[in-house]
Design goal:
191 residues, 12 strands, two-stranded antiparallel ribbon, mainly beta, 1 helix
Length: 191
Amino acid sequence: MNEHTPTTTQTMDDVELPAPGTWRLDPGHADVGFVGRHFMLTKIRGRFVDVDALLEIAEKPEDSHLEATIQMASVDSGDATRDQHLRSADLFDVERHPVAAFESTRISWNGQSGSMTGDLTIKDITRSVTLDVTLLGVVTDPWDNQRAVFDARGRINREDWDITWNMLLGSGRLLVSNEIDLVLHVELIRQ
């Protein structure tokens, strides 16, 4: 790193955290996904491939702020028929609601982990969601880009966003779980 390259980290309580500044999601190194249950048994995974996010890291981590957008038509569950159904009016209704958004409202941080609460808007419905966040590390890549790598997890009930399509099976089970796990693995690049 040359003398003009700003430092990638700040140290708080003997833990290296990303330095204050603007950090943008690297879409090529982002997995913004979800996991639901099929027949209430099998885990079905999906992800959104067109996501943008900007994280403003403050001197105090709790003063940081994140804004993200998700192009809902970019859903990829590994099955074209299922993806078409997810995009349909039965579920995401991407024709009428093409973009979902998340904006943080509160961050708490301790060491290399914390929680981020924010407003998640899907289908023009906004609900509060809390994600458990872990900082995996801060590195400088071979092209002198400074990267911060995070994992985040949370759980939502999809019906809270009017994503209600389902089928009751003869066994009394639902075809698709209402509880959905959000699972994110992301790299952000300092701007």
